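Z., the sequence and structure:
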Amino acid sequence: MGKLVTALKQQKLYGNTAILVAADHGESLGAHGEDGHGIFLYDETIQVPVLLKMPEAQPTTKRVAAKVRLVDVAPTLLEVAAIPVPSQMQGQSLLRIAKAGSSTDQPVYSRNDLSQRGFGWSPLESWRAGKYLYIRAPKPELYDLTSDPGANPQPGAKF
């Protein structure tokens, strides 16, 4: 990133440039018994920071605490560039969320096929909406994240 920013500044393009940085996944670091990432769909592996530097003509410094989706990246960059967002494109511009000052999380769908492709296991899917996290697995899991923010499976729990 440093080299990119330096090059943009040297070419006097930095002020007119939008830069969006996001990761493709998080890391479990031992949470839920997973040392890295790749299998589970808990918050540790599906939540990533998204940073957006706006062009100087559209200054804004705002932290949005709402959970958003990576599918929202393309519509956001198109709106920044004043390019119409195709109606068939998934996602929505994050600028609308930021302008509205919304702290309402967007429903988020995640899917993991690595377990199936790499190990012949079932694929996993998750749906995060409001305070709930549902994980579709051979043994489905449903968490109320206000009472269980760590999404800790309870021994003997029936789902």
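The beta strands are 19-22, 50-53, 108-112, 124-129, 132-136, 141-144. The longest strand covers residues 124-129.

Let me know what you think.
H.
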